[in-house]
Design a protein that fits this description.
Elements: E1 12-14, E2 20-22, H1 26-45, H2 52-72, H3 86-102, H4 116-140, H5 154-177
Antiparallel strand pairs: 1-2
Helix pairs in contact: 1-2, 1-4, 3-5, 4-5
Length: about 190
């Protein structure tokens, strides 16, 4: 089977459940940004300097991002869609707690950057925050004739918020393991 279907040539795409929406739809922006985040994490995982505990965690996050993409591509009335659940967010919170134990508390804002892995994780964090904003917009905007309350699983929004926190700490952790000092921001 070819990847070329030609069904999107007129500027529409299909959703889980069979409905079609314009490629400019807020729903497509939401799950498309999650796809971009997943690709960004693929670049992070290609970095040879990535500390081992982060590698396993980020690989798991990539799998969860596929679930999240399907979740966002499926209006809430579509059955049999695997959705992000509270247990996924709980796991992120456990990782966050562990990273916070290993890092000094921040008393200032820091510049994103540092090692290649740390810089790539900061970039992933910004893409994650954009995905979160897109998902929130989807939750507040009617898409393809569906009421906003039916648009997004609340767990998807919580997961994205927590994932942004995790990625920030993962960037700090990668830089610390690379012995790179954080640069404070003066403003």
């Amino acid at each position: 089977m070819s990847i070329v279907t030609k069904t999107g040539d007129n500027g529409e795409t299909g959703l889980v459940g069979g409905s079609r929406i314009p490629k400019s739809d807020v729903r497509l922006h939401a799950y498309g940004t999650v796809d971009e985040l997943n690709a960004t994490l693929g670049m992070v995982l290609a970095e040879p300097g990535l500390p081992p505990p982060l590698k396993d965690q980020l690989t798991e996050v990539q799998h969860l991002l596929f679930r999240l993409g399907a979740d966002l591509a499926s209006p809430m009335d579509v059955k049999n869609t695997k959705r992000i659940e509270a247990v996924h967010t709980k796991e992120l919170e456990e990782w966050i707690a562990h990273l916070e134990e290993t890092l000094p508390p921040l008393t200032f804002f820091i510049l994103p950057g540092g090692s290649k892995a740390g810089s790539a994780l900061h970039l992933a964090r910004t893409v994650c925050r954009r995905a979160e904003r897109r998902a929130v917009a989807l939750s507040q905007t009617s898409s393809a004739g569906v009421r906003p309350a039916d648009e997004v699983s609340p767990q998807a929004l919580i997961f994205l918020n927590r994932l942004g926190d995790y990625l920030f700490l993962a960037a700090r952790y990668a830089n610390r393991k690379a012995s790179i000092k954080e640069v404070g921001v003066e403003y």
